[in-house]
Amino acid sequence: MTGRDLDQFVIDRVGDGEFNVHRDLFRDRTLFDLEMKHIFEGSWVFLGLASQAPNPHDYFTTWIGRQPVVIMRDATGVLGAFLNSCRHRGATVCPHEQGHAKYHVCPYHGWAYDSAGKNLDVRDRQHGQYSAAFDRDSHDLAAIAKFGNYRGFLFGCLNADAPPLPQHLGDTRFFLDLVVDQSPHGVELVPGSSTYTFNGNWKLQIENCVDVYHVLSAHSSFVKIVERRRSGESANQLEALDFAAYRSAAITRGSFTFDYGHAVIWAQNATPQIRPLFPMIDEIKQRVGAIKAEWMLYSRNLTLYPNVQIAENASLQMRVIRPLAVDKTEMRIYCLAPIGESDHTRTFRIRQYEDFFNVSGLATPDDTTCYEDCQTGYRAHSINWQQGYARGITAVQRGADDYAKTIGITPVTSQHGPHDIQDETIFHASYREWLRLMKAGAK
Ligand code: FES
Ligand SMILES: [Fe+2]
Asked: Could you tell me the residue ranges of all domains in the chain?
């Protein structure tokens, strides 16, 4: 597929009031294979948190696109990222999701590696009648081309020509800082994670995280449950989201998009006192200043394209996206929390998380069901174009709005206003990046 072929899948003429995406992006297997090669294996992807391997010889495994990866901390405490594939005949060297091992002995023929990926033993090498050519090759685990760490968020890239990580992340780092700085000691994963799949394309998840428009329709049952709790009709008095204030005209919400496909939506918070973070806010204000502290209490849903999302509106959630097929996606979801918060606050945080975000929560199944409905609807092959990228198109502005200026960032686009705009221009960044990476790969 040439660059010109790819141009036919995205219409990007915002100046003329038009932006659209072809439905084949969600249903075409050839495009999916190219996405794995040129997007997931051609750009930076999120791997995990440094705190998932806190001590020397700890490791955890993950994926870059279709390729198995292991992140290990060596004897001196340095993190490395390698393809999780024995150099001999390919078996995964670390078969577990996470663990602790000074040495990794391949289960198949017994080649051994240390936690820095170095080959220590080709079993029975001395009797192997090997040639000089064999000895010329490195037998170490293959390090991935680029590996970066932004304040404990680990990213990897199989493409040596990708830009440096700070450039890739750009001003989204402000929003990562809002997560890391919630405690002087940083954030950690609350033990336990959920993994689930949905029968839909991965870009449905990319869109949904920053989709304001779906909340009051797709999550209407949750809205009603919250109302019942407030009126005392329900025995469960847990406060998670305040929908009474959600749509209020007094609340400003907005969005920013960035280079490389990243995007964030934000909203002022009428009821900051129902955030687990609230009891710590005075300490936070002193440490990071009033503006950052205020933004920590805003609702924020951040997507770092193409595979990680951090949502903070009830509790704090991290989602990692792994596409399995054009119509199947695996999600790994985690509750994040500031290190050192009180037991009482941690309990409240977990209850909120279970209530809304968890795979068994009141929100997630609404979303995944809608994704699967979309995927079924895409089988209507005589319809080629979506109509879902147009709301807000005459309101979005290039560069920084006043809110961006206040926090000192320079996004590609900004948009803000009352809830009811329910802007859809926020999605444009991801499709621009889709086209850029796919065309770069096609070259
Ligand atoms: S595949 Fe690992 S030792 Fe043979
Ligand atoms: Fe949702």
From this structure: 46-150, 170-442
Give 111 Cα–ligand 1 centroid separation in angstroms: 6
Q: How many CA atoms lie within 13 A of 360 on its CB side?
A: 5
Model pLDDT for residues 54-109, shown as the tens digit of each residue: 999 999 999 999 999 999 999 999 999 999 999 999 999 999 999 999 999 999 99
pLDDT digit string (tens) for 9-32?
999 999 999 999 999 999 999 999
Nearest CA to ligand 1 atom 4: 109
For the stretch 294-320, pLDDT in tens is 999 999 999 999 999 999 988 999 999
For residue 282, is pLDDT > 90? yes
Query: Is the CB of residue 91 below 6 angstroms from any atom belonging to ligand 1?
Result: yes
- Quote the pLDDT of residue 413: 97
Return the CATH number of 46-150, one of 1.10.3720.10, 1.10.150.650, 3.40.50.620, 2.102.10.10: 2.102.10.10
CA-123 nearest atom, ligand 1: 3
- Nearest ligand atom owner, CA of 93: 1
Fold of 170-442: Naphthalene 1,2-dioxygenase Alpha Subunit; Chain A, domain 1 (3.90.380)
Q: Show Cβ contacts of residue 38 under 8 Å, excluding neighbours closer than 6 positions.
A: 437, 438, 440, 441, 442
